[in-house]
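User: Let's play a game. I give you a shape written as tokens, and you guess the letters that built it. Ready? Here's round one.
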């Protein structure tokens, strides 16, 4: 639940300019739109890549308007709370006498952990939504254009988990209290590790996306991708807590997404940090120390 076509360089480019006459250290991303792009797109309706470039560019132009940026910042930061509300409604029973009978110590613990995590991460979400370049780098959308598409699929799978748990039977073998307790422990550990990683990331992105160093300390001193490791541990716990088929389908899909995203991200990081990242990747495992 805690939740990914390349743009050709000739079609759209971006530059950085000082904000309000400030020093070069405080900059914003400004699009440089080619005046011929719209004409080319109109002339060639069979150019999906060019259309994707135009759509991305227009979206970024809209995001960079101050009034839109502030609004999206807060809506984006609060969206996990809306999602939690929808998830709770999926569990609500039709019987007036016991509308919340499916909220037990395990599912209730899940929602409590998520609420605490959302409140804690509100600052992190606002910090990455503050600037378009930081948002694209932190979300990975600058090297993985399918971020939103896969995120929506994951969200729908998770909602199926809640609906099935609330209104159908769980898998009896997995509904064992011991297994669900282990799942809650895994979920809690995953959330704590995720919050630790995001705290480090928030400090990392505070200065914007320029002149950053490769992160090799804190959780990044243990594995190369601690955020994905935390999310996967939480997703395994999620599947155990809700004990149904969709939970395990969601977990399997998460593993696929993580592996896909890691492959793309490592190419991106190799391009940014060159041999420095090569040395780091030889010293640290991807997700599980000394194993993988």
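Assistant: Ready! My guess for every position:
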């Amino acid at each position: 639940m805690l939740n990914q076509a390349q743009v050709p360089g000739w079609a759209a480019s971006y530059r950085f300019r000082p904000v309000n006459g400030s020093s070069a250290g405080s900059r914003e991303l400004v699009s440089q739109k080619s005046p011929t792009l719209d004409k080319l797109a109109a002339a060639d309706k069979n150019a999906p890549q060019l259309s994707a470039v135009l759509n991305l560019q227009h979206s970024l132009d809209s995001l960079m308007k101050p009034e839109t940026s502030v609004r999206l910042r807060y809506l984006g930061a609060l969206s996990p709370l809306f999602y939690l509300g929808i998830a709770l409604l999926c569990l609500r029973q039709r019987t007036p006498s016991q509308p919340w009978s499916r909220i037990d110590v395990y599912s209730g613990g899940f929602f409590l952990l998520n609420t605490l995590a959302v409140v804690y991460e509100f600052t992190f979400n606002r910090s990455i939504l503050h600037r378009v370049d930081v948002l694209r780098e932190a979300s990975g959308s600058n090297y993985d254009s399918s971020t939103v598409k896969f995120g929506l699929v994951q969200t729908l799978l998770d909602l199926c988990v809640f609906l099935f748990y609330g209104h159908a039977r769980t898998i009896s073998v997995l509904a064992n209290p011991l297994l669900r307790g282990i799942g809650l422990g895994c979920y809690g550990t995953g959330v704590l590790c995720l919050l630790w990683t995001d705290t480090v990331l928030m400090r990392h992105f505070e200065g914007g996306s320029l002149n950053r160093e490769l992160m090799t300390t804190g959780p990044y001193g243990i594995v190369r991708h601690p955020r994905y490791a935390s999310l996967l541990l939480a997703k395994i716990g999620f599947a155990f807590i809700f004990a149904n088929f969709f939970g395990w389908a969601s977990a399997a899909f998460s593993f696929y997404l993580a592996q896909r995203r890691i492959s793309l991200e490592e190419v991106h990081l190799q391009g940014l940090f060159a041999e420095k990242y090569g040395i780091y990747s030889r010293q640290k495992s991807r997700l599980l120390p000394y194993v993988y």
